[in-house]
Sequence to fold (167 residues):
Amino acid sequence: MRRVTWEADEGDALRRIDALVESLPAADEPYWVAVEIMGVASEALVTSIRACQHYEIWAALTDRYELKSDERPQAVAAIRRAAAEWLGVKDDPVASDEYFDQWLYEILGYRRTVPKGWILVVEELSAGVYRVHAEDRHGRSVTRKGTDLETLKHEVGQQAFALEAAA
Fold:
C-alpha cells in the first residue's frame, strides 16, 4: 500500500488567497470567489495561522450567504467589504493583525480564547493527544498537553488571561 502525504506551502496558500481577494471586487458572483478563498485557506490550516484566520472569516461570510437567504444583499456587501479592507492592509503586519482582530471578534462575533495580542496554537502530537500553546509578543507563554482538547484550550486561555491581568 502506498502512503500519500501532503503538506500545504504557507506562502503559496497566502499568495493564492491574496490573488483571489484581489479578483473579488470585479467578480459578478463574489460569493463563489469567497468559497474559493475558503477552500484555499483550508488547504493550509495546519501550517498557517493566517490561513486559519482567513478560513474563519470567509467561512462565516459564506455561511451567512447560504443560511440567511433573506440577507444575501447584506452578505454580498460584507464579502466585498472584507475583500476591500484586506487589500488595504495585507502588506502591513500590524494593520493585518488589526484586520483579523476586527473581523473575527468585533464584526463576526467570535469569542476570544486568549487575550487580544496572543496567538493560540493547537498541535495533535499523536492520536488524541494535544499540545495547546499560547504566546504574546512579549514572550509570555502558556502550554498544556493532554487528551481533552476543549479543556486544554480553556485552561490555556484562562492562564493567558490571568497573565494579561497581572501585567
About this structure: The chain has a mean pLDDT of 90.
